[in-house]
Specification:
Layout lengths: L5 E4 L24 H10 L3 E7 L1 H5 L4 H16 L7 E5 L3 H4 L10 H10 L7 E4 L2 H10 L2 E4 L7 H10 L1 E2 L3 H9 L1
Parallel strand pairs: 1-2, 1-4, 2-3, 4-5, 5-6
Length: 180
């Protein structure tokens, strides 16, 4: 398998509206610019991997079936625009309930699993999200990290991203910087 770069993108607050413990598939709403962003990477031949923490499962606020229905709805919405995700990975844990794990972002297990399944080269990859935990794996794995602010992005995350990664206003800026 040839090693290639990937777009690792967070789900809630980055490509869909963050409904906080999203358990109803009818509430899935793509954020402005998400379709154009994902389409640009897809048309450029990139592997696209959604990587999402879903602690609501461990907390009992979202069932695994609810999560799968939300995931299926996101896939449907993207398919309507001709976009197919290469892979979706989720961490169902919460440290207060299940203890620590290697998959919960900023842990790197989900990324390593995607690399192994799809032949991804981390060094050429891009890591995008609205929280520092979405961007931090880029530093450990060797890619480029981009933080895009959402209403829920803590100021400390923005400041850290401005110092240690790339802090940009929107998804379009990521696409312009990476795909130019």
């Amino acid at each position: 398998m040839t090693s290639r770069p990937a777009l690792f993108v967070d789900r809630d607050g980055t490509i869909i509206h963050d409904a906080h413990y999203l358990h109803d598939a009818s509430l899935v709403a793509l954020l402005p610019g998400a379709v154009e962003f994902l389409r640009a990477f897809a048309e450029a031949g990139w592997t696209i991997v959604v990587v999402t923490n879903q602690s609501g499962i461990a907390l009992g606020k979202v069932s695994e079936q609810n999560y799968l229905a939300v995931r299926a709805r996101l896939d449907e919405l993207l398919a309507e625009h001709g976009i197919t995700l290469s892979l979706t990975k989720h961490c169902p844990h919460h440290p207060d309930v299940t203890g620590p794990c290697r998959c919960r972002k900023p842990g790197t297990l989900m990324y390593e699993q995607a690399r192994d399944a799809l032949g991804i080269d981390f060094v050429g990859s891009v890591f995008v999200g609205d929280r520092w935990r979405d961007v931090a794996p880029a530093l450990e794995l060797g890619g480029r990290g981009f933080l895009i602010p959402s209403p829920d992005t803590p100021e400390a995350d923005k400041e850290r991203a401005a110092r240690e990664a790339e802090f940009v206003p929107d998804l379009a800026t990521v696409a312009a910087r990476v795909l130019r």
